[in-house]
Design brief:
The chain is built from three helices and four strands. It is an alpha+beta fold.
Length: 95
């Protein structure tokens, strides 16, 4: 996995400067890479219980992925019991 480059100078000047992103050239499927990134954020507490996750559109833009790829990654986290989808509200980290 690689870090997204920032055009801004100095630490903390870009919201995405410390974002870990998927490796589009890796053998591991993109949805599995994204699921691993989100899982790590949940397990580390970066995404705490009860917190709404970024929208599908935001994850698509941040990681350069198709909507179906993002949905498959989130589906995996739902199956693992890490997140809940609430129609019309978003996806939340389980308490």
């Amino acid at each position: 996995m690689s870090k997204v480059n920032s055009d801004c100078s100095g630490p903390g000047t870009d919201a995405y400067s410390d974002l870990v992103s998927v490796d589009h050239d890796a053998e591991t499927p993109l949805w599995q890479q994204l699921a691993s990134i989100l899982r790590a954020q949940i397990q580390s507490g970066e995404l705490p219980p009860g917190r709404i996750m970024a929208s599908e559109a935001t994850l698509m833009q941040e990681h350069g992925l198709a909507r179906g790829t993002v949905r498959k990654a989130i589906d995996a986290l739902v199956q693992e019991g890490l997140v809940n989808r609430v129609q019309g509200r978003g996806t939340f980290v389980r308490r």
